[in-house]
Structures are given as structure tokens and as C-alpha cells.
Amino acid sequence: GTESANESYVIYGQDSYDFAVLHLASMLDQEIPVYEVYVPENSTQTGYTATVVDHDNDTLTFSLGNNNNEDLFEINANTGELSFKSAPNYEENVNTNTYKVEVITNDGTDSVSQIVIITVTDANDLPQIGGEMTGSVTEDVGADVVGDLSATGQLTITDQDAGEASFITTTLTQ
Asked: Is pLDDT larger for residue 134 or for residue 2?
């Protein structure tokens, strides 16, 4: 007769950074399970840590595949924590904010893998103010007819979030 052996693994992600984890599903065209994570831009954290149950209690190591976007990521070989090598910027990658990564777990004999889909979401970026930011006045020198002193300069503002760069004009009185 024919002898066969079966070893089962369960892989699941941990939502360790309070990011919105949607679901674990199987892709229709392959048997590798898929895990989806949504993370805000400007951070290397993905919120995903691979966790594997090995009933033999073997020492497990984690690695990445090489057929997708793995070159942009790193994984801790001992803990399974997945992170970006450098923080993604949503505005710089408008057409490519979804990444596919294969996480591989090996127990020294067998390997099992899981696809992780990471979607980077937009976050409100802080505006950058530049230009001449200081001015000085000397009391009683250069006052206008009503005694007001003024200093002039030009400030600039840039904001990566489209349509959000503006100043509010105000007058300070004492």
C-alpha cells in the first residue's frame, strides 16, 4: 500500500497595531490563504505578524517570497513581524498603494506560505511653512498715521494633500 503523512499548519495575522484588518480568505485561483491589512501612510509598521501553530513544536523561521513586492519589505525571521523597509508615502505612489507579499514559514523540514495584501491609506500630512518667518519693528519708529507699526515678509505653504494648502489672514492688535 501507499503511505502518506499530513502535517497541518494554521497561519493567521495579528492586528498588533490596531490597524483595520479585513479578512482571511482563499484566492479563487490558488490555494495560498490571503490576509488583507489596511495601514496608514508614513509608517514602516504593517500591523501584521505571522503566527504559525506547529504541533511538533519545531523551531520556526519566517522569510519572504520573491515573486511580488517583497523587495519593499522585511520580516523578522524569529517573530514573523512584517514591516516596510522604508515608510510609504501615499501621495508619491497614488497608482501603487496596494502591495502583495508572500510570507513563508519553515520548520526545518516543511514550508507553508501565506499571501498578505497590504493597502496603504492616505493620512493627513502636515503642511510645511517656509519663507521669511520673522520680522521686527522698533517702537515709535516707522509708525503710520494712527500709530500702527508693521513688518512685511512672504510666507509659503506646501501640503502634500491636494487642495489643503492655505493661510488664514489675521491682524494682531494689542
From this structure: 134
Residues 6+ apart with CB under 8 A from 75: 50, 62, 63, 64, 81, 82, 83, 103
pLDDT digits 0-9 by tens, 2-32: 443 333 344 444 444 333 333 333 333 345 6
Q: Exposure string (b/e) for 16-47, b if CB count within 10 Å is 16 or more?
A: eeebebeeeeeeeeeeebebbbbbbbebeebb
Q: Residue 126 gets which letter from DSSP?
A: P
How many Cα atoms occupy the beta-carbon half-sphere of 15 within 13 Å?
Answer: 12
Q: Whole-angstrom Cα distance, residue 130 to residue 96?
A: 30
User: Cβ distance 76 to 125 under 8 Å?
Assistant: no
Count the Cβ atoms, other than its own, within 10 Å of residue 171.
6
Using the predicted structure, report yes or no on whether residue 118 has a pLDDT greater than 80.
yes
Confirm whether pTM is higher than 0.70. no
Whole-angstrom distance, CA of residue 62 vs CA of residue 111: 9
Q: Tell me the residue length of the chain.
A: 174
Among residues 13, 65, 56, which one has the least CA distance to residue 36?
13
Distance CA 160, CA 133 (A): 21
**Which pLDDT belongs to residue 173?**
65
Which residue has better confidence, 20 or 59? 59
